[in-house]
Amino acid sequence: MSKNLLGILLMTLGMFSLSVNDIIYKNLTMNFPVWEAVFFRAFSGSIISLYLVYHSGLGSIKTKKPVRHFVRAFSAVGCVVLYIFGIKYLLLSENIAVAHSAPIIAALLAVPILGEKVGTHRILAIIIGFIGVLIIVKPGTEFFQLKSLLPIGSALFMASVYISTRSLMNTESSTSIVFYYSFALLFTSLIFFPSDFVIPDTFNLVLSLSLGIMGSMGHYFM
Question: What is the pTM (predicted TM-score) of this model?
Fold first, then answer.
């Protein structure tokens, strides 16, 4: 299997895992505070990342690029938090459509940051994608809502995640990338831990903990 084909397959698996997370988030945020959902996502994800470290050894999280890990980890935190708030307050389809403009932004940022070349076809795809985002968000019209900026903010952070991941992938392990992100999210969720915490029943507890599994898989494959 070629590297390009393997990359496409892993990216597809990663996006599928994160899409399952979207559905779970939508269900949970209807009945629980957003930061509670974030906490359970972070808690279960941290357990999985510790297992990965145990399996791979402590050497798997040693890094010579702590600043880049910091940028990626907290960009991912910003992406996830804004995305979940978007899921709570917007239609799931609208939130996904706008937030998934991240590759468009990443393609633009890849030119000055990574030195990548952008061909004619990519430029056209970027323009069409940007027009699509404008159609959905409807800036300057009576249909525009401030909460529509949530998935846009999430997309900006996600673009930063894509770029920083590209800068790490040649020297850093997938385990280290998942590890630092998981604990950055856990740390943030504890700071904003909700005072109106709702004790979940068994079904919702399973759903909550599965967020970490699917989310970690998504970031590991990507």
Answer: 0.76
